[in-house]
Structure formats: structure tokens, C-alpha cells
Amino acid sequence: MAMIFCNTLYSSSPSLSPLTSFRTKPSRFSKKLRARVQFRSMEDHDDHLRLKFMEFPYVTATRKQLMVDLMSTLEDRLQSQLLPCNLPPEARSFKNPNGSAEASIHIRSGQKSSPIDFVIGSWIHCTIPNVVSLNITSISAFLNSSTKAPNFVVELIQSSPTSLVLILDLPHRKDLVLNPDYLKEYYQDTNLDSHRQSLLKLPEINPYVSPSLFVRSAFSPAASMLKIDVEEEGTLEEILRDHVSPAAKEVLGVWLERCAVEEEEKRVMGVEEKLELERRDKSFRKKSIEEDLDLQFPRLFGEEVSSRVIHAIKEAFGVL
Amino acid sequence: MAMIFCNTLYSSSPSLSPLTSFRTKPSRFSKKLRARVQFRSMEDHDDHLRLKFMEFPYVTATRKQLMVDLMSTLEDRLQSQLLPCNLPPEARSFKNPNGSAEASIHIRSGQKSSPIDFVIGSWIHCTIPNVVSLNITSISAFLNSSTKAPNFVVELIQSSPTSLVLILDLPHRKDLVLNPDYLKEYYQDTNLDSHRQSLLKLPEINPYVSPSLFVRSAFSPAASMLKIDVEEEGTLEEILRDHVSPAAKEVLGVWLERCAVEEEEKRVMGVEEKLELERRDKSFRKKSIEEDLDLQFPRLFGEEVSSRVIHAIKEAFGVL
């Protein structure tokens, strides 16, 4: 999630005081009734928090529609394979006391029998008056080591009404130089680069190079890492609706058809290969958290909230 | 060598007839005298062919000076570790019958005790009247599996007097996502990206994205893959002299100081790690030849010359 978060925030942004937590008071009901009420309350709370996530409240209608469409497609297609979100509520929706930074995170792990490790969606909003208004919306899907197929990521980072960074990719999980067949199967044969090429035909779109060398290494050579700069906000909406949205949906389609499937030939067979894949996945996840959340979350949400949220994310990522 | 050769040539270029070979006639001298004469003649021939390579005859004075400086630095610094060029003469200098395509290749393998596998320099010139005049000059240095340190490459590809593609890099030999320490040691700590960033400050320089996904994977995230477009040829000379040349020399300096050295901690210790490195190096070299020479050489030099030259290169690359 928010893998290039660190690259878009101003390093000079002021430190923000931590969020006041919103724990519920102890109940006075009987144990049984309390358990039933709690269960119902948890379900309601889960629905409430999912709706809160799906609101994408600080972005334009077109962008919200895109994120909702992508998340709904993912959840609908993988429904039977996904467990409910089990992040603690305080890591699912949180803000800092003055309301200048707010975020929502939605993680659903895959069933043990599924190749899905977890699906994660998030939005982060942060306003520092006269300095920056930052909105990041992001969806990623991570596979487990039963398959070596690529993951999926889409991320939109906007720090002004007329400028937006798009990351759209199926990040590789094997070294592409050592495994040219993998490059062929998932990138050449899927013609993944065509989306990048088509988007680059628009005069408002240019390549985006992340300042982080790790981020550059982690995305595939067919990744759409692009910066969209427009003169009028309406143009950005048009580009999102007519170009980015179809591209993102097609890339997700490729991922659902070709990667998020349990096909025998895609299974990692050797023990060594599986261990190597697990090491690589872990290294990627740890480094993402280290370069991204560890650096930025404390500045935005304060130490206490950050450490609670990052702990929950690390748990879901399997890198605690 | 010429790793992105395939990306700059016009696919519509006409097929060219093969080069007439220049084998010497059988001699009539005594066996001993013949051996001595042959040895002397071989030495002379070697000098002649090295000088021919170092001529870089079809490029501007500034560019020739840069290539000669880089090759001389490499050969001077590694002198005791390098064997003489043992490519067959017909693979060191060759052209097609009508003279529209000409090339020179210079390969020196490292001594067994050295971490250098081989150093390769080349220039390729090709003119198709009213279509294209292409000049590629390239120097690479490959390490063997006694070390995992990166290789070195500099390549200049010019298809018009006012436009040039530069590739300058220390291509990684380990998966950077799996090995973040490697990324730190050779790319972050060396500040390799600073050269790319400095060059990009010039308005005439923009990022270059190779159409080949393999090429994009093979270069490091700090590679200077840049396109220089100028209005007047003189400006290109200035940029080469004042900006590209110092950057290339500094990157070569980093490679000579930090990579082409036999330090115990850089040695690959485990048998498995060494085998993996060998597999990756081999995969890289095979794929480079496949995507590059196998595709383009027959069109330029004809089947016969190409197959002879490619055979000799494969031998030197250890991928026959």
C-alpha cells in the first residue's frame, strides 16, 4: 500500500500530534447477551468501517468511482476466497486530533486454500493549509507462495488539483533477468506495456521516475508509472474517466485471469523455489513498510497511532 | 555489447549481402620460420586490429576521445589481469561488401585469478542512404562469479547528427528486491543516481525508455538511460565533452574502485549463491545476444559473417 507515499510528501511538513483513540467503554450487560450484542456490534462495525473505506471521501467523483469499481470487482471475483477484514478497528479508520490527516485501511486475507495472500485497499488524506493537500488512494493484491505469479497494484497520488501520479502494475515476484520465461509469460504475452504506451500518447502524461531506487526496482518494466499534469481540473477528470480507468480495469482483468488462479503449472513446485519466493516476498514487504509507513506515518498521525497501525499492517503482511 | 542495438535500428532497413572474408593464403616458408613469422605477424595483426578498434572512425572527435579514454583507463588499470584479445581476426573487424555496414570488436578475457571475466569494446557503423546513418560505440566489463559486484556498461547510439541515446550503468547481478543490502552498497552508497539526475537537468536531455522489456529489466534503477536531442551538432559535442564524459569517467571510477576488486567480503562464498550468480550471468548474456545480435547482425552483415562473429562472441561470453 501507498508504496511511493514517501516520495510525494513534503519532508518539511510539520509534525502532527497523535490521534485520540476511539475505544468503546466496558458494557454492563450479561455475558451471553453481551457476546451476542458484541458479535452484532462487530458485524455492524465491520460494515460501517467497510463503508467508511469505500467512501473515498476526499477525492473527485470519477476517482472515487474508479477505486470503488476496482475494489468491488476484486472482492466480487475473489469473494469465496477472502476472509473478513480482521484489522483492529483503530487501524481501519483513524485521524489526527486536528483532522488534518485521516486514513482508512481495508485488508482481507485469503483462505488457506486460496493463492491469495491478502487484498489491501487504503486512502490517505492530509492537508497542511497553504502547503499541501495530499490524497492517496491505493489497492493492491498479494499472492502467496503457492504461485509465483505477479501481484497487482494501482495507486493514485495527488498533491494538487491539476497534478496526479499513477502507478499501475503487476509487480514481478521473480528476478526477470534470471527468469526470461516469466517476463515473457506475464509481461510480453499479456502486452502489459501497451497500457503505458497508450497513456503516454496523451500530451498531459509523462513518465514518472520515483526518487526511491527500491521503488524503481520493485515495479515491473511494464509498469505505468506516470505523471499527469493538466491546466484545468476538468481535464484530469476526463483523463481518469476515459483513459486511466479503462487501463486499470484491463490490468486488473489480466491479473484476475492469469495470476489469481490456481493452475497446476503456475504452482511453485520445488521447496527451494518456494522458500526463495517467500524470502523475496518478505523482503519486498518489509522494505515497503520501512521506506514508506515507518518514515511517514509518525509525522502524519503521531507515534502512538502510527505504531498501532503499522503493527497491524505488519501482522497482515506476515512480517511482524 | 550493443545491448539496445535492436531498438534503434529501423526494422525496414534493406537486407545486406554478407562480407567477403579476408583469410590469408597458405604460406610456402619452412615450418619453424613460418611459426616465427606467423607469431610476429599475429602480434602485428593484433596491434593493427586493436588500433583499428581504437580509431572509432565514424564518430566525432569528442566522442572518439571519450571512448578511447574509457577503454585506455580500463585496460591500463586492469592490465596485469587481462589476456590479449583472442577473437579470430574475422570477428574483430568486418564489414559488408558494399561498405554500408562496418564493425570492430575488441574482447579481452581476464586471467583466471582475476575477478574480471572479460572486457568488451565495440563500434558499429551502418549507413543506408537517405534512411539512416547509425553509429554505436560501446564498452562493457563483465565480472566472473568470484564476486557478485555489478558489471559496467557505457553505450552511445546515434542515428542522426542531432540525437543520441546514452546508456551508462553498473548493471546489477543480484535481484535487488531480494537483496536490499546490495542496492544500498552499490547504488545508494555510491550515489550513482546523481549522474542521471545531473544530466537530466539539461533541457536537451530526457529519459530514454527502451522498447525492450528485457533491456529495461537488465539495467539498474540508477542507470542513466537518456536521450539527448539538440538543435545544432555543436551543442551535442559540448554536452558530450562537458557532461557525459565526466559522468562516464566517474561511473567507471566507481566500478574500478568498488566492483573490480578482489575483496574478501565481496566474494561469493556459498556454492549455491555462486551457482545462482552463474545462472543469472548466463541468462543475461544469452538473452542479450538473442535479443540483439541474433536479430540485427544477419540483416547488417549477412548470414555467414554474422554466424561467425556471433559464434566468437558466444565463446567469449561463455554461452556457446
From TrEMBL, chains A, B:
GO terms for molecular function: red chlorophyll catabolite reductase activity. Signal peptide: none annotated. Keywords: Chlorophyll catabolism, Chloroplast, Oxidoreductase, Plastid, Transit peptide. It is found in: Plastid, Chloroplast. It holds the Pfam family RCC_reductase. It is an enzyme of class 1 (oxidoreductase). InterPro entries: RCC_reductase. It catalyses: primary fluorescent chlorophyll catabolite + 2 oxidized [2Fe-2S]-[ferredoxin] = red chlorophyll catabolite + 2 reduced [2Fe-2S]-[ferredoxin] + 3 H(+). Its EC number is 1.3.7.12. This is red chlorophyll catabolite reductase. It comes from Noccaea caerulescens (Alpine penny-cress).
